[in-house]
Every structure is written in C-alpha cells, then in structure tokens.
Write a structure and sequence with these properties.
Layout (H helix, E strand, L loop, with lengths): L3 H5 L3 E4 L8 E7 L4 E7 L6 E4 L25 E16 L4 E14 L4 E7 L4 H16 L3 H4 L4 E5 L6 E3 L2 E5 H10 L2 H13 L1 H5 L2 H9 L6 H5 L5 H14 L6 H10 L1 H9 L10
Parallel strand pairs: 7-8, 8-10
Antiparallel strand pairs: 1-4, 2-3, 5-6, 6-7, 9-10
Helix pairs in contact: 5-9, 7-11, 9-10
Length: about 280
C-alpha cells in the first residue's frame, strides 16, 4: 500500500473518510512530458480522487531555442530611410512613464507592403541611431507578416529595462536587447512582444482560444499559467512557431514536448491561416 504522502508526489491526493480497505492504481505516461500520473482509488464503491493539474513543461518560450528565428532566414526587409530629427512621445521603462523625447526617425519598409517607424532617443548620436535602426529592421524583417501587421513604431532607448509592447509599438532598451542578442534570442523576444501588438486584441480572449485553453492538459509555460489572459497567447505562439515553422531548428524531443502539452491551442493557431511570409520561403 502506498502512503498518501507518496501519492501527492504524483499530483494526486486521495480523499476518504475511513481507513481504505483496498487500493487500485492506474498509470498514464504523457509522452515527452516526463510525468507519471498515479491515480489512487480508495474508500469503498465511490472513490474520491483529487487530480492536480499537470505542471507546465517550460519556463518561458522566448528562450527555448535561439534557432527558431535567425538572420539567416528569409527576410521581408526592403529598405530603410532616414527621416531626420524630431520629437515624439514615447514610453521609457527607466522612468516608467511616457515622456516627450528628441529622436532620430527612420522608416523601414518591407516587401509585403508593411512598414514601421523606428524612433531612436537622441541620447544616441545620429550614427549610432542609424546603426540601431538597421539592427532592428533586419530582425523585424524575419518576423512573419502577421506579427508586423499592426506594428507601427519601435522606440529605442538606452538601458537594461525589459522589451515590451504598448499599443501599436515596441519599446526597446538597448542594453537588455544586446544581452538577448548575445544569447541568440533577440528575434524570439521581438516576436513574443509583437504577438501582443498584432494578435492579442483578436485572439487572446476569444471564445475559441479560451475553449482550447480549457481542453489542453496544461499551459506551455509558467508565465502562461500565471497570466492566462495576458501571456498565454504570446507564450504559445512562440512554441507554435517552433513546432510548425522551425524545421530542423528544434529537436524532435522539444517538438513532441510542445505538441503533447498544448495540442488544442496549436490547432487553434493552425486554423487561423495566418500570413507567415517570409517564413517558409
């Protein structure tokens, strides 16, 4: 007989109001999740079994593999034009608020008809600002059309504050972004934030997405589980890119892990028929 304390290690707590006279065990191995669910039935003809949720397999999906999006992929980048100096209202994570800043402006055009304005804080000189415009334009060029569709601005400041999405824009702090770039994850982080810009409004709280959440055995990551309405879509889109579009960029094990954890959400994203150019070109 296995004690109740051992049963809890497998995510199951038997509940009963008398000493059990017998137990039965059922084991289920969820492929590649590395989890064994042990169900214990006790207490007579109508056993009561409390089953705890399967824990998310990942911590954060923007950092699972640096080869999901790379500069070696096909690009939609067409041209970058310097628009000169001006002033713009921009959010700055260093002060946690919107302020008016002198900026260097650049327009980035893509060959699928989309464009974005890059506004670089004039705390950088014009040459450095142009380098930043090129660096981020190149990385935006490998993102699929669906993630650039509603993106209007990229605001660039110095500092170590997190990259984030606000409204129709991305906020970049260059020291933190450089750390991501050094690890190979800058493109994946930009894609994650672009989901908030272009997809959240239509999908993050849609009936179909909520139904898929409820159908799946778990969330893909701890962040998605903690913020199911704000982060689940962006976290899951990242692994959908990995599973469906990265090809040999991820291992078969990781792909199976993803497919087993959130199959209904993956199918939801499959069914949207997103425009993914230039991916797959």
């Amino acid at each position: 007989m296995m004690p109740a304390s051992s049963a809890r290690l497998f995510g199951v707590t038997p509940t009963c109001n008398r000493t059990p006279s017998y137990m039965t065990q059922h084991r289920f191995m969820a492929s590649y999740l590395g989890l064994t669910l042990l169900l214990l039935a006790a207490c007579g003809e109508d056993p009561i079994v409390e089953v705890r949720p399967v824990p998310p397999p990942l911590n954060g999906t923007a950092f699972i593999d640096p080869d999901i999006l790379t500069l070696q992929d096909s690009t939609a980048l067409d041209s970058i034009f310097a628009l000169g100096a001006d002033s713009r209202d921009m959010y700055d994570g260093r002060v946690g608020d919107v302020g008016t800043y002198d900026v260097w402006l650049f327009q980035t055009d893509f060959d699928d008809g989309l464009s974005v304005v890059i506004q670089v804080n004039a705390e950088f000189d014009s040459t450095t600002a142009a380098d930043f415009a090129t660096l981020y334009s190149r990385r935006l060029g490998v993102l699929p059309n669906v993630l650039r569709e509603d993106l209007q601005t990229v605001s660039i400041h110095d500092g170590l504050e997190p990259l984030l999405a606000i409204g129709s824009g991305l906020i970049v702090h260059t020291d933190q972004a450089e750390d991501y770039r050094g690890q190979g994850f800058l493109e994946e982080v930009l894609a994650h934030e672009a989901v908030h810009v272009s997809l959240d409004a239509d999908h993050a709280n849609s009936p179909g997405w909520i139904a898929a959440q409820e159908s799946d055995p778990t969330f893909i990551s701890g962040i998605a589980q903690q913020f199911p309405r704000d982060e689940d879509l962006a976290e899951t889109f990242g692994v959908w890119l990995a599973s469906r579009w990265a090809g040999d960029g991820i291992t078969d094990f990781l792909r199976s892990l993803i497919d087993s954890a959130v199959p209904a959400r993956l199918k939801y994203l499959d069914d949207q028929n997103f425009v993914m150019y230039p991916m797959g070109q």
